[in-house]
Amino acid sequence: APAQIAVTGLAVMGRNLARNLARNGFRVAVHNRSKARTDALIEQFGHEGEFTAADDLPALVAALEQPRKIIIMVKAGEPTDAVIEELVPLLDEGDIVVDAGNAHFADTRRREDALKAKGLHFVGAGVSGGEEGALNGPSIMPGGSTFAYSALEPMLTKISAHVGGEPCCVHVGPDGAGHFVKMLHNGIEYADMQLIAEAYDLLRHVLGLSAPEIADVFREWNSGDLESFLIEITAEVLSQVDESTGQPFVDVVLDQAEQKGTGRWTVQVALDLGIPVSGMAEAVFARSLSGDVVRRQAAAGVLAGPSSDAKLDVDRDAFIEDVRHALYSSKLVAYAQGFDAIRAASDQYGWDIDLGAMAKIWRGGCIIRARFLDRIKEAYDRDANLPSLLVDDYFKDAVVSGQDAWRRVVAAAATAGVPAPGFSAALSYYDGLRAERLPAALIQGLRDLFGAHTYHRIDREGAFHLDWSGDRKEQPA
Ligand code: NDP
């Protein structure tokens, strides 16, 4: 029988996705630009299901039942366009092309538009969970036409992760919606990892705990509200011992964080949407700073830290508990900001994204899978138009009850000279959000003085301008 679905691009992600499909009983046609990967897949894993190996794209297309469903899993960017260009002339009206790579959602919108004009369906599907997820069940975020999603749904929901019997896959919305949400997922992942790193750094340098001791702290945290994949693997990384030196693994790794770009995209897009995503922005900046070797070397030993009489006297267990609160509260801020950005994009592009459903499909399979995502789902179930997650009862209680601890941690970080940009930006956002009056009033005054940009009053409608260089009388603008 003809194959039900095809995968082209058989590096780690594509190979594992193809195996996942085959293991779930679907007939899969597979192809890769260089044949060696196709051969290796068939040789090593051919017994796992019904595969059809194709040497080129025409053979791949010929192997499929109609309407054809083809998943592209190649390097994001130009390679994806190259594959689409080669594929499109081989297809018939109604066929469905899925890009499961990490495309920028603007590219997905462009590609969807171009393929629609040719009578083809284009689905930009975010896939999270790394190679392990691709094989055993990722979180899948497909965007595109309802028709295309209905055709793919039985397969995608079967191969996705499941939590409580429910698939971690839902139709996110039209065109670029799926890839946008995947990008946001990665942005949140950046923020989460930065906050974890700051918690580690504070425990290490304020309390002087060793890496294995901190691993124990994270292990314990993983049994409470913080329970998540990232907290779990933090304990694992921190307890790893380097074989060649006997040192903690974390101490022999170069402290320069790399990035592939999805965090940066998230921040760039959020800037355009006008949504403050300070948690993600600080995470991206912190990675950039870590990799800025030239400036770090120039400053090391030149820019002094706190004087020795600024020594902190903190109780070990109390401080650990404070850091836990700071971590959780800062994390809630990052998620609140992330969901604000999804809502803003959904409004701007007319995607009509169900925010609660996004939290639900992130509960399993993906890198940010966590217990507290249930809380986000519940918050949006209570009020789909919640202006900020932070004002939902559960989240409000969590940040309000944790705020004293959070403040102590940010103060301790400043006193000890340990950088905590994520914790402090999150706390500033919290204080900014709840402030009755912000100093933005002064900024408006300055703008009016130097640029006649006008201002609004608290007591009367309309825009006004002061004649700053003349009689300083107020005039309606
Ligand atoms: P890579 O991103 O390393 O891409 C390698 C694959 O792309 C190979 O199959 C390669 O073929 C193919 N390729 C590259 N250029 C071309 C081209 N011009 N024409 C045709 N094929 C080309 O593979 P990954 O498996 O790591 O990732 C695949 C996609 O999934 C990417 O978009 C990535 O961002 C995304 N992703 C990756 C995750 C991960 O954890 N790695 C997680 C989630 C998403 P060849 O063998 O011939 O060189």
TrEMBL record:
NADP(+) binds at residues 9-14, 32-34, 74-76, 102. Pathway: Carbohydrate degradation; pentose phosphate pathway; D-ribulose 5-phosphate from D-glucose 6-phosphate (oxidative stage): step 3/3. Pfam families: 6PGD, NAD_binding_2. It is an enzyme of class 1 (oxidoreductase). Catalyzes the oxidative decarboxylation of 6-phosphogluconate to ribulose 5-phosphate and CO(2), with concomitant reduction of NADP to NADPH. This is 6-phosphogluconate dehydrogenase, decarboxylating. It comes from Kribbella voronezhensis. Its EC number is 1.1.1.44. Homodimer.
